[in-house]
Amino acid sequence: MTTGTTLPHLEARAVLFDLDGTLVDTLPDLHVAVCATLTEIGRPIVTQETTRAYIGKGLRVLIRRLLAGSLAATDGEDTPQHVQALAAFRTHYARENGCHSHPYPGVVDGLRALKARGLALGVVTNKPDVFIAPLLEKTGLSGFFDVLVGGDTLPRIKPDPMPVVWACGRLGALPKETLFVGDSLNDALAARAAGCPVFLLPYGYNEDQDVRHLDCDAIIAAISDIEPHLRTVGRP
Ligand SMILES: O=C(O)COP(=O)(O)O
Ligand SMILES: [Mg+2]
């Protein structure tokens, strides 16, 4: 793993981005929707730091963790209360999505620079599909991406490599020519298993862990740090 000025130079045709915690700081929206959901089902609200720790493995796991009050609660059967909480969250988040969220510093400039170089760009997120386009629209990021893969596009989500491999295929690029940029273990595992080089950002949500301990090719400070370090193979 390298940081700062010692970033590796990569040859790339395409760049895939995680969404929550990488391109957009969505925690404020998610937290308002989490608290509204807990209130609706008669549970005490949680702190924003708890919501931050529970984000990452998709909506179903977020709800499981909230109802169990534990980061470890990732598997199991859905009870009627899970089903009720999931439905409530979808309603509340549809209202809040994009209202209090902002792209991180360097995102717009960084995406513009990559686009100007002719690279194909995509998003691979565990966020449910229905929320992706409205969020990109409200945060001024729609129009940059050639493919969007969400939490229900395919049978598997990150950390499985399936959505990453599929997105590479849609962009006409081999995984080894596609840089994956994310903020979490789910991203690093999915991208590595797919065969992509991986850059991670330290400012996002990584289920309470420090990304600096993860297997990646570089930790970068901002999306605008990427373009100077890419050699373009050519647009597919
Ligand atoms: O919805 C989540 O759990 C996380 O979404 P992400 O994959 O964009 O970080
Ligand atoms: Mg993320």
TrEMBL record:
List of catalytic residues: 18 (nucleophile)
Reactions listed under catalytic activity: 2-phosphoglycolate + H2O = glycolate + phosphate
Broadest EC class assigned to this enzyme: hydrolase
Enzyme Commission code: 3.1.3.18
Binding positions for Mg(2+) per the UniProt entry: 18, 20, 183
Cofactor(s) required, per the database record: Mg(2+)
One Pfam family in the UniProt entry: HAD_2
Molecular function per GO: phosphoglycolate phosphatase activity
UniProt keyword terms in alphabetical order: Carbohydrate metabolism, Hydrolase, Magnesium, Metal-binding
Gene3D superfamilies: HAD superfamily/HAD-like, Putative phosphatase, domain 2
Keyword Magnesium in record: yes
SUPFAM superfamilies reported for this sequence: HAD-like
Pathway listed: Organic acid metabolism; glycolate biosynthesis; glycolate from 2-phosphoglycolate: step 1/1
UniProt similarity note: Belongs to the HAD-like hydrolase superfamily. CbbY/CbbZ/Gph/YieH family.
Role this protein plays: Specifically catalyzes the dephosphorylation of 2-phosphoglycolate. Is involved in the dissimilation of the intracellular 2-phosphoglycolate formed during the DNA repair of 3'-phosphoglycolate ends, a major class of DNA lesions induced by oxidative stress.
Listed name of the protein: Phosphoglycolate phosphatase
Organism annotation: Dentiradicibacter hellwigii
